[in-house]
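ugh ok fine here u go
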Amino acid sequence: VAALMLRQPELFVLFKWVGGAYLGYLGIMMWRSRGRMAIPSELDAGPPASRLQLATQGFVTAVANPKGWAFFMVLLPPFLDGSRPLAPQLSMLIAVILTIEFASMLVYATGGKTLRKLLGKSGNVRLLNRIAGTLMIGVGMWLALG
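structure:
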């Protein structure tokens, strides 16, 4: 794709204009949206998942993520000393990683719960859509004209 863009600069300009126009279209659609939550309220939702189901789903998602495995394969070796026993080193690293992960997920969950309450009112969702729509239109113009 890069070679094609270098050989055909007018094609690159066309892609910039089309991309900018598309972002502008998305921004206008966000401005025109009604301002409702996409997530159903508790009344519309089915039975809540148990804590075990949620934990299992999170574990399977994390274990099946190849980016996570690659990240740890790159991250962990510099912190391991080959002349010392591996089990205590890994135990300490895993404890630190799990503590940081738990704190991060707690912040995400608390923030999500707060946002759900805040965005539960139609006016707040509409305001957020208008802010995001304005940003999309601005980025579209910047892309097309820049």
